[in-house]
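Example 9 (inverse folding). The structure is encoded as follows.
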């Protein structure tokens, strides 16, 4: 009897200590790597064809990535994940990519192949000022850009002018910040789902060059996407929220910004929608 409980205890503590490859992948790699297609970096299917049976090479690459493919950004070192964590990620990548066929990269996908300083719209995973380490910079068009934080699952700020200067970042070791080229015109203080909403980032897609973010806010599944306003300064923000109860979002008024909604009631810093309205609604932000 004693023997058994000891074995259990040992097995349990090993399981508890083992790093979770899936979770580590989501936190550290998913912003740039997707299962079956190239986004910022190659797909997991491609990783599998390169590294199946070679965990050491996979770990070595992740700690000290090299410049290999033309016209993609440099992969930042993942040394902070640690060797054990990278091995867990390796196991996860090999497992989920097994038997999967890669999709052809969408032609003209600005994400992967275009000269990164020219294409608009453009989505870039980069370390941004005044945002979390999992931030994504989005150039909607030649004037309007924004920073969306995949860690906090929310818009951080929007600016007009140029896009970003990645030079400090590309030159550095991955911990320096890109520079915003232009003027920040809108800063969002907290998630519309509430300051303390428990959020979980589920990934993002790029459709026609524009990002579509998926996350959970509490129990609600949220899809949030961005597109440019036609001619002028601002952006269009579209949501789809799965909810059975009326949705009340925080939208504090801000000077310099006017927001209009295509449905729901926007008043007194709150935005109220029925579940049917919440399934698809759009907010247009005009900036001065
Ligand atoms: C900021 C974006 C970014 C992040 C985050 C990122 N990668 Fe990459 N990764 C890239 C890019 C870009 C390339 C292609 C680089 C090249 O070919 O020059 C790449 C290539 C790779 C490759 C292919 C290497 C080869 O031999 O061709 C592997 C494996 C890889 N990454 C693993 C990882 C792992 C594991 C993580 C997370 C721990 C990670 N990456 C996080 C951008 C990223």
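The amino acid assigned to each position is listed next.
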């Amino acid at each position: 009897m004693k023997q058994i409980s000891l074995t259990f205890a040992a097995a349990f503590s090993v399981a508890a200590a083992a790093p979770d490859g899936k979770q580590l992948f989501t936190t550290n790699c998913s912003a740039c790597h997707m299962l079956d297609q190239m986004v910022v970096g190659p797909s997991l299917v491609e990783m599998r064809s390169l590294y199946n049976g070679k965990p050491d090479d996979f770990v070595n690459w992740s700690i000290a990535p090299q410049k290999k493919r033309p016209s993609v950004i440099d992969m930042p070192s993942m040394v902070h994940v640690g060797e054990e964590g990278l091995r867990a990620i390796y196991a996860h990548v090999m497992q989920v990519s097994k038997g999967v066929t890669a999709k052809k990269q969408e032609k003209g996908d600005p994400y992967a192949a275009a000269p990164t300083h020219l294409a608009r719209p453009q989505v870039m995973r980069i370390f941004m000022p005044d945002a979390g380490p999992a931030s994504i910079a989005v150039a909607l068009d030649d004037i309007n850009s924004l920073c969306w934080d995949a860690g906090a699952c929310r818009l951080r700020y929007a600016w007009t002018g140029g896009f970003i200067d990645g030079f400090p970042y590309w030159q550095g070791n991955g911990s320096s910040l890109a520079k915003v080229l232009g003027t920040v015109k809108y800063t969002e203080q907290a998630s519309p789902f509430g300051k303390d909403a428990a959020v979980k980032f589920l990934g993002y897609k790029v459709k026609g060059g524009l990002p579509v973010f998926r996350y959970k806010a509490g129990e609600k599944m949220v899809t949030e996407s961005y597109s440019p306003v036609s001619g002028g300064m601002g952006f269009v923000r579209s949501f789809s929220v799965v909810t059975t109860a009326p949705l009340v979002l925080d939208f504090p008024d801000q000077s310099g910004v006017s927001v209009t909604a295509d449905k729901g009631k926007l008043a007194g810093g709150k935005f109220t929608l029925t579940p049917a309205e919440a399934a698809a609604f759009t907010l247009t932000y005009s900036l001065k």
